[in-house]
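We both want to read discrete structure tokens more fluently, so let's practise on a single case. Once you have written the record down, we can walk along the chain together.
***
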Amino acid sequence: MKGFARFNVPQWGDTYITIFAQWASGYKTSRRGFQHLYGDYLTFSDNLWFAGYEGDCTGFGDCETLFGQTPVSGADFGEEAGLARGSLENGSFWTVDMSIGKTFNLTGRVGLELRGELFNAFNQQVPLAIQDRAVDTFGEPLTRQRPRSLRIFARVLF
């Protein structure tokens, strides 16, 4: 959910204040097991067409390759018992950005706009994505919100 508001302050002579707020409930993710056949983390426990098959495998490779064994010793994430796709959820996050600016008329057709912008005003740095591959670092943050930052902006209008 996103919201934007702009307030003009006539008492300050063409000054404006803007606020941009964003909230997200958190992204769904799944643990992905390693599949040797393709050399990538692709398998999900509820997406294996042959799950539970105990006979001779007749697919593109042997059963071990098709069942997507993981390189993490002692942890078989290729067949997560009861872990459905999209069952893991990252936490919710929010951010507020603000700016204040003023426009000056220099001559009849030339103007100057000065603006200061504050991003992530409350310095929230919640993880946005976690490691979803079946490796030793599974569940650790991959990306976070950017820390608070300030930008000064100038523009000539003509």
Summary: The longest strand covers residues 93-105. Helices lie at 63-66. The radius of gyration is 26 Å. The CA atoms of residues 99 and 117 lie 4 Å apart.
